[in-house]
Every structure is written in structure tokens, then in C-alpha cells.
Amino acid sequence: MSESETDAEEGAARRREPGYGTYFKVWAALACLTALTVTSASLNLGKIAILVVLAIAGTKAVLVLLYFMHLRYERRLLVKLLVPIVVATLAIFIGLTYTDILYR
Amino acid sequence: MGDTVHEASGPYFAPAGGRPGLLGWITTTNHKRIGILYLSLIGTFFTAAVVLGVLMRIQMQSPGMRLMDARTYNVMFTLHGIIQIFLVVIPGIPTIFGNFALPMLIGSNDMAFPRLNLFSWYLFLAGALLAAVAVFTNGGAPDTGWTFYVPFSLKTTVNVPLATFAVFVLGMSSILTGINIVTTVHQLRAPGMTFFRMPLSVWGLYSTAWVQILATPIIGITMLLIVVERLFGIGVFDPTKGGDPLLYQHLFWIYSHPAVYIMILPAMGIISDIFPVFSRKNIFGYKMIAFSSLAIASVGSLVWGHHMYVSGQSDTADIVFSLLTFLVAVPSAIKVFNWIATMYKGSIRLDPPFLFALTFVVLFSVGGLTGLLLGALSSDVQLHDTYFVVGHFHYIIFGGFGFGLFAALHYWFPKMTGRMYSKRAAILGWLVTFVGFNAFYFPFLIMGWEGMPRRYYAYLPKFASLQGFSSVGSYVMVAGLAVIFVNLLVSARRGEKAPANPWGGATLEWTLPSPPPLESWEKAPTVVKGPYDFSGIEEGR
Amino acid sequence: MSERESAYDPDRGRIGMWLFICTEILIFGGLFLLYSVYRYKHSADFHAAALNLSRLDGTLNTMVLITSSLTAALGVHELRSGRPGRSRLYIACTLLLACVFLVVKAFEWGAKFEHGLYPGASHLLSLPPGQILYFGLYFTMTGLHAIHVIVGMGVFGFCLRSISKGSTSASRPVLIENATLFWHLVDIIWIFLFPLFYLIS
Prior knowledge:
The structure holds three protein chains of three kinds. By secondary structure, chain A is mainly α. Helix content of chain A is 76%, strand content 0%.
């Protein structure tokens, strides 16, 4: 790497954000998980298929949130709590609706 | 204090450098001016909705009255509901007083996003205009009730798509206001103002803002789905295509129940500011009130199914939602006890803001207690869709938010206008409104109990005397409202000049001149004591 | 507004943007609620309907969006490292990949229209209700997502201009940071849409 590029990597580390290496590794992980989820779909997993697929999608989303969206490096507690709050809110909305759907 | 305040600037409403006149107002990014912009629109919409309400009461005055036919009556209560709920009560306090007062209450010179603030106002105006256009185009005003229930809203030939799209736009405005308020409270508090030194009105606005952010998107998508369903027939709410109309009700109430907490929490917050000032005593249980605001916001998002007990949802859902509904009453009750306890051994001054605040507590309590009857499954089966429900929510919303709004107007009027209103006229207006209000709505509770269905334009002779009495009560109430508003409007121009701190309040806005300049502070004030610490503060006149 | 007040607060814009992102997640959340209920009620029909979608196109689009997220993130990185030229290059790549996504989507939708599998089509209406709902949700959710893609592209276009004018730079990167936050959200939504519509086994 040239000098300015090494400086940039150090600058990134100081600013607490990912460097090129991290970004590409995350991209590779996302690609692998995509391949994994497509393969799982042809495996006929029956009832747990939806759970597997959601787990993989969830993992991909978490990777994007943590590294691409910098939550891993976020200093403000408020921002770090937002996605968990939203997920919890959605879970409640969907969950309570199911008290109707499941038992009608 | 004086050296941190702008001395030489004129009031915020005087022509400032930049664009003159009306153009200057509608391109402003200043929080005080934007608050007034909202006040002018909301005051207009409220008046329109009251007129619709009076027309409805004339229709209901006697069993044979035919001022309008059934369909027109449906349009009346639909528009009355849409205007009051989406254009007055939901935006009301966050946009008028959240904008005008919040920055001052936390020692800031403006909101976090001033230009976004102006954009919120434009969206609000756009939503209102779209709704108005919907009334006159493509089949005319909706007759579905403000709740737009399917399947009727999908089939009725009136302009449902534009009306629901208007609600969508208003929802966007509300979301942006919520984002502005949360960011402002987190980022712009003056040095020394910790979260637990914030006035409780700020806690009220803050909790509300979270509900605006987390709940409003659901009504957004629900209204969009109505439009998409009508235009493209995707089938999600259409039983002939496998859709479930109850899912519409779930999605609708997932927002619309938390919406009622958007309506009441800011009002409760302001009441929590007013009680200490007029009892000249620290609030009882500051932290409990602060946490109860958060509790109401969160638990209140879990109870929406209580609007659907008899809709066909499962018994399990009925039971779960009923239990949660009883839980949400607890934090509200805590507030009521704490307000009363604040008065104990206090030095009470029955000025108009406090009169409205006291009536708030009484009327809100009546509304809340009637809510228990509706929250309980067995009684709700009898009372659902009757006048009892209409009485309940008018006690809560009008008695609660409405009187809370009047309290806020009378409390901050000197700050907003630099003048004082006639206290006698205010007390007269308060009294007439209060008497008229109860004469109007208490019969609703009785009639509903006896089986009078809601949203009907005619009724059995046995309800005639109560309906007639109620209508007269409504006219008295409107007369009272007229006294209140004429008093405020006239005094805004010709009232006696008001001092900076006419009530002897200890929160930061009272350290600024009445009216304040565009920029409140040259240097942010340093906060060293709590919001209800009256040591060193002169008592009000 | 006094200059003191607009003194640069690096957190303010980011907090506001994240709050906005929360609202977007919730808007799609409402649609996911509907999807979840209808799939639960009509799982066989959903599986049959999903066979009409091309897994190849879906997988391709998924990789296109993931890669566009990478280029967008690198665009921010380069700007914050003080290299606006490279930043604009990466943003241009993001825009290109977004176009590819939309083109593939247009072909997919076109194929559905040809086969009479769109809301209101008589062929679709002759199918079981679960399949009608599947396609109703498919067009609504991918349509709403596509609108967000287009909006994101518009914002990036605005970023390009802002970078070349210098109003967005290493010392004031808020605009492009917020634009890419939005873009990553668009990516995350697709990360869920893809398996839920294309991979129903």
C-alpha cells in the first residue's frame, strides 16, 4: 500500500470506522451467506426452512448494520439502541396480532 | 440572568431582517414563528370541526329532525373526526407548544432541525389541503368514519383514496416533528440541564415524540394500502381474494391507539408544569411522573385490540388485550395522585391556567374511569359502538387534551403575545365551557348505557329528552368556547402588557422577556436547579 | 440563526437520520406483518406462486445490491479520508449497480405481466386466494422497495453535486453518511424480501 493509503487506514482506525480490509471481508461474508440461503432453499427443510432463511437474512442484516452502517463503531448509546427498539416494537406488533390469528 | 439575554432585539413576531410580511412568516425556520404558524392553522381547523359538530347536534336535537339525510350525517361525523384527530388533536400540542416552548424550556435557541421543522409545517398544510380537495372531488367527502374500515372504504364511491393519502402526508409531518423533538431533547439541552432537571412538559413531549416515530409509520402503510387496494385490487383486505378485513383493523389500531397517547401525553406534561407553579410547591414525585410518561407511551402501544373485542378477533386476543388495557391505566392514575399531592399544603392561586388544569384532571378522570368499563370484556360487549364510547373519548380527548390545550394557551399566552388577557373573561369562558361540556357529554354516557348506537342520524323516541338536553348543552359549551377565544384574540392585540414572569414560574422560558426575541439567548444559560424550585423567584401577580 | 447555534454538531444529523431509518423499517414492517399472516394461512399457495419467480434474477439482484452497499460504504470512506475524486467514483458505481437492479426488476415485472400474474389480471384472479395475495404483496413490497431505490439514487446524485461543490467534504461528511445509511437500509430490506419471495421451499 502507498503511504497515503496506510495513513488512510490509520486515520480510519483512529476515527473508529472500518478500513478497506474489513469492508471487503464483510462483502465476502454476505456473498457466502447469500449462497448458503439459496442452497438451503433447495434442501427441502420443511418446517424449519423459514427459520433457517430468516436466521441467515438476520445475520446478513446484522453484518450490514454493524460494519457498513458503522454501528460497531458507534459511540452514542441512543443510536445503538434504536435498531433493537424497532425490532422489539415490530415483534410486539406482530406477536400480539398473532394472538388473534392463531386462535380464531 | 439579564446579561445572557438579547436586550436590543424586538419581539419574535415583529418584522425582522429578511423577507417582510406573510412571506417572511411562511419561509421562517424560527421555532417561535413556526409554533404560531401551526397555531393559526390548527385554530382554523378546530373551528371548522366545531361547526360540523354543532350541525350534528342540531340534527340530533329531536328524533324527527332532518337537517340532513343519513349519508350526509355519515360525511359529517367522518369529517369531524378526520379534522379533529389528524388536524387538531394529534398535531396540536407537539407542533404548537413543542415548537414554541420546548427550545426555551431546555435553554436552546431553536429545534435541532429548523428547516425540517418548516418542512413539517408545509407537509401539514399540504395534508390539510389534500383533505379539503378530497371533499370536493371524485365523489366527494368520505362517509366511512375517520376509521376508514374495510370493506366499506373499499367499496364506497367517494374520494377515499385522496382522503387516506392526505392522512399519509399528515403522518409524515408528525413523524418529522417527532424526530425533531427527540433529537432536540438529546442534543440541545443547556449546560446543567440533566434529563432529571427537565420540566415535565418536556418529558411529556419527549415520550410523545417516541410514539410519533414508532407508531405513525404503521398508519402510513395502512393508508397507502387502502389507496393501492382501491386502485389495483391487490386483495390484502378483500375477503373474496383471501384477504382479512380484521387485519386492516389491527394495522389501523396499532397506530390509532398509541395516537391517543400522542394526544394526551403532552397535555399531561403541561399540567405537570402548571400544578407546581400555582401551588408554589415542588411537584410531588417528579421521577414517577417522568417514568409514567414513558410507561404510558410503551404500554399504550400494546392495547390496540381493545377496539376490536366484538369484531370477530379470537377470545385469546380479547383476554390478552383486556389485561394489558387495565395495566395502562396505572401510570395515568399515578399522575393524577401526584398532581393532587402537589397541591397539598401548597399556596394555591386559582388563576385561569390552574382552573383549566384542575378541570383537566376532573374530566380526564371521568373519561379514564369510563374507559375501564370499555376495557372490561363483559361490559364492552354491551357498550361497544354506543354513545358510551363517544362520551368516553370526548371526556378524555376534549376534557383531557382540550382543556389541557386551553390551560397551555392561558399559561403561555403572556409569553407568546407579551400581553395579559382579561382574567374575568377567561374564568367566565372556563365556567360556561365546563358546564356546557358536562351537559353535553354526560348524557352520552347514560344514552350509550341504554343502547343508543353511535353514528346514527336518528333515534328512538326514548332518547329524545337526553338528546335534546345534550344538544342544548353543546350550544352552551360553544358559547363558552367563543368567550374563551374572543378573550384571547382581543387581548392578543389590546391586552395589558405582561411582565416576563407573570405567574412566578421557575422554568427557563420565564427568564426571557414577554414576548421573547427571535433568538432567546446570546449565550446558553447554565442550569443549576430543578424546574420547580421557586427559591429566589418572585410570586406571580 | 446565529452562527454559534449552527456550530457543527456531528451527532445531530446522524441521530436524526437513524430515527428516520427506524420509521422506514416500521413501514416495511407493517407489510411484513401482512406477509407473515398470509403466508401462515396459505403456505402451499405461497410456495406454488413463488415458483413463478426466477431465483437466478433474485440472487443476481441480491448480489448487485450488496455490492452497491460496498461501493457506497467505500464512497464514504474515501471522502472522509480526504479523497473526493475517488469518493465520487464509488458513488457513481453505486448508481450504476442501482440501475442494474432496476433493469432486472423491470424484466421480472414484465415477465409477470406477460403471464397474467399481476393484480387485477383475470388469470391471477382465477388462481387460489393464497396466490392472489402472494402476487399482491409481491408487487406492493417490491414496488415500494423500488421507489426507495429510485429515491436513494436521487439522493446520491445530489451527493455527487455536493461533493464537487465542496459543500460535502471530509470535514462535513454528514450528507453522504446519511445518504449511505439510507442506501444500506434499502439493501437490508431486500435482504429480507429476497428469501421471503424467491426462496419458499
